[in-house]
Design a protein that fits this description.
Layout (H helix, E strand, L loop, with lengths): L3 E5 L4 H12 L3 E6 L5 H10 L2 E4 L5 H8 L4 E4 L5 H18 L3 E3 L16 H14 L4 E2 L1 E3 L2 E2 L10 E2 L4 E4 L8 E4 L1 H12 L7 E3 L3 E3 L1 H11 L5 E4 L3 H14 L10 H13 L23
Parallel strand pairs: 1-2, 1-4, 2-3, 4-5, 5-6, 7-12, 8-11, 10-14
Antiparallel strand pairs: 9-10, 11-13
Amino acid sequence: MENLILVAGATGNLGQKICRELIKRKAQVRAIVREGSKQEKVDTLEKMGVKIFKVDLDYEQQLINSCKGVSCIVSAVAGLHSVIVDAQTKLLNAAIAAGVPRFIPSDFSSNFTMIPVGENRNFDLRKEFYQNLDQSTIKATSIFNGAFADILRYNTPLFNVQQKTVAYYDDKADWKVDFTTMDDTAAFTAMVALDHTAPRHLHIASFSVSPNDLVSLSEQYKGSKFQLVHMGTMEGFSAYNKTQRAAQPEGENELYPKWQQAQYLYSMFLVHHSHLDNNRYTGLSWSPVEANI
């Protein structure tokens, strides 16, 4: 069926936003949810006009039935190996069995294809599923959005409002870090889901901003000029993250242990977009950095 989109992870923040953007664009939207999903989140989706399919991932035929007639699957799931690799692979296999032509994986992140294995645990999981996807017969599009812009409000070392500091590594005070708001990501993803010509990779950013830019912005919008702090070398940062991970093995069972948060920061300074696909679709507006700090 034309423009029937299935969203996995629809009860999550990004997934719900993607559903809303699809409905705004007159698409028919179907969501698969687990039996244990919070009812208020399911009710919110239904009020939007989303058709709910309650699915047990261990029952292959249920998954296949939920995929029948779908023109594109959008995965916005979040989790560890059991979700990013195992559950998405089950969904991928069901999509192929049901004849779904297109798949958008939950790759919303920096371009992990350019990041060595071992530097970011959560990206390594995406990379494992990415390989499964590329070996399949389905047409896929990964959307790389850099970091979600809301982390600029989390007092990370990059932009710490409490400490009034901005961090950088090596000689990267002018290195541009890519950020995209969740709303902008959802709007773009909806357009991609409706675009049967979409390529394998698309790169977006609401804005790209450097540590030096953030210092200037702090003076304009935070009332005082934050201190630019050199945090050492990228080589040293990588070694520190590996040491911390080895010392905290319990974090392997957590989605965002402290060492994983540090790995995300490392990734921000390791790769950034060489080009943007922001202008691929008309009618989209992109949130400025000033609205996100």
